[in-house]
Amino acid sequence: MPKHNSYEYFIIRVVPFVEREEFINVGAVVYCRSKRFLAIQLDMELKRLSVLSPDSDLDVIRDHLSAMQRVARGDNSSGEFKKSSLSERFNWLAAKSSTIIQSSPIHSGLCEDPQQVLDDLFKRVVAMPPY
C-alpha cells in the first residue's frame, strides 16, 4: 500500500489593482516535510496579466517572482534564506508581504508524490488552458 505524505500548498497571485480585488494566478508552491520537498512553479510569461493590466511593469513582477524562486530553492543568491529550513522558507513565501504579489490561504492534503501535486496544481489553477 502506498504511503501518503501530508503536504501544504498555496497559489501565488498577481493583483495589479488591489482596490478592484482582481488577480491572476501565476504560480504554486508545495511543501512536503516528510519528503523534504519544497518547490515552486511559475508562469513567467504573464500573458493573462498583460491583458488584465497592460500598464503593469512585467519586468518588475518577474524580478519579484524570480526572487521567490531563489528563496524556495535556497540558492546562494537568496541571502540568509540559504541557511533557512524548508519550513521557514515555505512560511516566508506564504506570508502576506506585498500588495501586488500575494499568496492564497495555505491548503493541505495527502499525496504520494509532491512533485506530481505541484504539476497538477499548476495545470489546473495557473496554466492557461489550450484553446
Write the layout of secondary structure elements.
Elements: E1 5-17, E2 22-32, E3 37-42, H1 47-52, H2 58-73, H3 86-94, E4 101-103, E5 107-111, H4 114-126
Antiparallel strand pairs: 1-2, 1-4, 1-5, 2-3
Report on the structure:
The protein is built from four helices and five strands, in the order βββαααββα. The radius of gyration is 15 Å and the shape is globular. It is 34% helix and 29% strand. The model has no long low-confidence stretch (mean pLDDT 91). The chain is α+β, with helices and mostly antiparallel strands and 131 residues long. 24% of the residues are buried. Strands 1, 2, 3, 4 and 5 form a five-stranded antiparallel β-sheet that branches. It has one domain (5-126).
Based on the structure, what is the oligomeric state of the protein chains?
Answer: single chain
Kindly estimate the percentage of residues that lie in beta strands according to DSSP.
25-35%
Q: Which structural class is indicated by helix and strand composition?
A: alpha+beta
Low-pLDDT sequence parts: none
Distance between the termini: 39 Å
Q: Care to count the β-strands? A: 5
Gyration radius (Cα, Å) is: 15 Å
Order of helices and strands: EEEHHHEEH
What kind of sheet is the major sheet? 5 strands, antiparallel
State the share of residues found in helices, binned by percent.
Answer: 25-40%
- Let me know the average pLDDT: 91
Q: What sort of overall outline do the alpha carbons produce when their principal axes are compared? A: globular
Number of domains: 1
Q: DSSP helix count?
A: 4
